[in-house]
Amino acid sequence: MQPGDRVHVDRGEQSYDGVLLPSSTDDNLVIKLDSGYNVGIDREAADVDVQEAGVYDIEGAQAEESASEISFDEDLPTISLISTGGTIASTVDYRTGAVTAQFDAEDVLRAVPELAGLANYRGRVVANILSENMTPDVWQDLAEAIHEEIQAGADGVVVMHGTDTMQFSASAMAFMLETPVPIVFTGSQRSADRPSSDNVMNAVCAVEAAKSDAAEVMICMHADASDEVCALHRGTRARKNHTSRRDAFGTVGAEPLGEVVYEDRQVSFRREYRERGEANLELAADLETEVELVKFTPGTDPAVLEAYDDKAGIVLEGTGLGHVNTDWIEYVDDLIDDGTHVVMTSQCLDGRVCDRVYDTGRDLLDAGVIEGEDMLPGTAKVKLMWALANAEDIEETMGTELAGEIQDRSVPWT
């Protein structure tokens, strides 16, 4: 029994058929199943039958992967590939059978060979973290890295990022950077060892978007369940709406900014965008980290707000037009009197805050609450962090559109 053999494995009441992969320990067998998934099995508990020897040349596959190299073509644009972690550039590690993240440009091209010939690439690692471990410190590092790459001549930037918090990071870059070139976030909902992985199409479409004329911070992910089109969402208006579907992301309150057709690599836009070269490159990476997002639900004790009495800012995610229980108003008033900036947003997916309709809203305005217009709550938090560190008039800044986060009108678009 050698790596590369096709085997049938019985373990208790379960049976597995697939190709034996190398394992990092003698205690486990690693099998690549016919479905494309890997499974690890305790060797002592397994009964193995070799059905066919040498059906897969593991060593040859590894040598072929290592032979990949990057060539420079003067006729192609230069795209900077920046990794923060995530699964989009993951490959199967044949030592362990596990899916591991790869980071430099050569690794990305080995994982996604379809990228070859689309652009010249530079690879850079900012972080190697799970998406849920993203922090404002990493946002600052990322913004500085993007700034340096554009300064060095990159014609576009693709940020590889875990999907769970991608919308927050994209919003942060939109406020921290004035960019003359596209900055495109992309990721993968399903890892590279799965037959339904979306890493190849998302990466290819993201590079095409980074070559486009839209100097915006965008998120590029599957537009639907098929492998035909990727949607381009403005970073400050995007939301992850599904835990596992490949078309997990949507633009809230409008249609996506544009799309990329995978087969013919065509990029098109449906709405106005900031054109390439329109803005001068600028970086404002300071952030006030003492900002929290608090969601109101019926029955929540208003005393929870006492935990935030030393915060610089709070974004409230209220109901409807921007409401909380009337018992909360006294606590909100105290926070604002003590110097905390409080911004109101809505739990509704569409529409904007208007606290002038009902008594509760008017009382909140009298207390000094800042209306968050139609900003997404997460985007409002990121913007407040940025505003507190960079703006003089917080209320005016929060009510002013800076990066497409506020729409002129809230109207049905479908």
Provide a descriptive summary of the structure in words.
By secondary structure, this protein is α/β, with parallel strands linked by helices. 23% of the residues lie in helices and 26% in strands. It has 9 helices and 23 strands. The chain has helices at 58-66, 105-111, 136-151, 166-176, 199-210, 326-337, 359-367, 377-390, 394-398, and strands at 6-11, 14-21, 28-33, 38-42, 47-52, 78-83, 91-93, 98-100, 120-125, 156-160, 177-178, 183-186, 217-222, 229-234, 238-240, 249-251, 258-261, 266-269, 282-283, 291-295, 313-318, 341-346, 370-371. Strands 9-6-10-12-13-14-17-18 form an 8-stranded mixed β-sheet, sandwiched between helices. Helix 3 (136-151) crosses helix 4, helix 4 (166-176) packs parallel to helix 8 and helix 6 packs parallel to helix 7.
- Straight-line distance between termini: 59 Å
In order across it, which strands form the biggest sheet?
9-6-10-12-13-14-17-18
Share of helical residues = 10-25%
User: Which CATH architecture of the largest domain?
Assistant: 3-Layer(aba) Sandwich
CATH homologous superfamily identity of the largest domain: L-asparaginase, N-terminal domain
Number of helices: 9
How many beta-strand runs?
A: 23
GO molecular function, one term: glutaminyl-tRNA synthase (glutamine-hydrolyzing) activity
Domain Asparaginase/glutaminase C-terminal: 291-396
EC number: 6.3.5.-
Family: Belongs to the asparaginase 1 family. GatD subfamily.
